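Quick check before the chapter quiz. The format below is the same one you will see on the exam, so make sure you can read both the input and the output lines.
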Amino acid sequence: MTTDPNSTDSDSTDSESAPLDERPYEQAELKSADSLVLVNTGHGKGKSTAAFGTLLRAVALDWPVAVVQFLKSGNWNTGEEKVCRGIGVDWFSAGDGFSWESSDLEESQAKAVAAWEFSRRLIADGEHRLVVLDEISYPMSWGWIEATDVAAAVAERPEKVSVILTGRDMAQEVIDIADTVTEMVKVKHPFDNQVRAKKGIDF
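Here is the expected output.
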């Protein structure tokens, strides 16, 4: 089995009781990819947080980067939006908040559809080396946008465009075309004890 040389986490189910004393892969076996598709899903915290961490790596390499948020609106004033705009990230908050807070779900659906059409064009244009589709799994789960459509557009992206998609219960069609899929598993969360989201930690 080839092990990712850049990973600090063991993907093996075998117990490792001591540091490796030999390289667990052959350099000649490795190849480069022009771009990658990453999925951060699961019910644990950290899906968007991990995406924004990767975003920082891309910005440090002077990649043009864009973020489209499918749930959060421009009224959220999140810390990540403030910082990312300041370092040149093209940021688009296209949603209107949690579904249970919506006064008009048809309007919420229309916003999600418009956000996806915008995202499709953003990816196809190829002007950004990284595009983050934050919380896109939810409108797919609700049937507002077609998962097969999203998967096809991402799979057919320009060769230098990497894409990160986040959200719980990611559509299988998207998982199937992704290169990296990480599932965040909740062990504990403050909300279990009725502790509200904390600014600076959660947003």
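If your answer matched, good. Residues 59 and 65 are 7 Å apart (CA to CA).
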